[in-house]
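Can anyone check this?
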Amino acid sequence: MQAEQARRSDRLMWLSADRVLYAGLLGKTSSRTLGGWAMYVSLDEPHSVSIDGGPWECGELIVVPPFVPHRLLAGSRLVCNVTVEAESVDTAALPAFLTARAGVVEAPLAARRVREIYAHLLQAGRDVDLAALDFDQALFGQALVPRSIDPRIAAVLAQIKRDPAGQLTAEEAAASVDLSFSRFLHLFKQETGSSFRALRTWKRARSLLQYVTRQSSLTDVALDAGYPDSTHFSHSIRQFYGLKPRDIFAGSRRLALYNYQERLC
């Protein structure tokens, strides 16, 4: 689906290597566990969230840390979600509102920025120049500080991100950077904040986003994304997004996808 659909649809997704801005349908989700820092901004009516089975809260801006289970109820037809990949940023240097707490936070300026960039993308349509639009400056008003990562772990991360459908094992990754298996696992979690298995599984599920507007069968998408069969595909996607793959694709039929990853390749 082409970006010009932004002119006649209010659903869009700006996808880059380490960031996502999504404005679209949420659907009836179960618990979801995103692998990045997640911001949910209401476009009109407030959203409600339950963090890891806790009490429900309602507000215009919700923050959920990486790999924290949560349920979300959209206050209106559309939900606006910003996701920042956890290993791409220095947690200690993130804007204070992102790390203050999990749940509803008071940050009206941050919420306004998200709404403004959403409106800008809708208005610009096919004419938007993503190369001239800095995601962090637009959404956060500043460049987020990148995480400093051991070069050996950074090399493995780059391989996973370059080929999320690949079948790289922890043993193979450890050998590729001349580390023992146990030392590699320890260093990987220390440097990224996530286990090797959890991060690799998340990156594979995240890669689904580049396929959601393609006219392909779910079986083909599952294979292209590196899943051995449709059962593993459905289970993994539902674990992260709280929705079955077919529901995600059904809700993306009028989605305008701005895939900046392809431009960078």
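Reply from J.R.: I decoded it. The domain at 151-242 is CATH 1.10.10.60 (Arc Repressor Mutant, subunit A).
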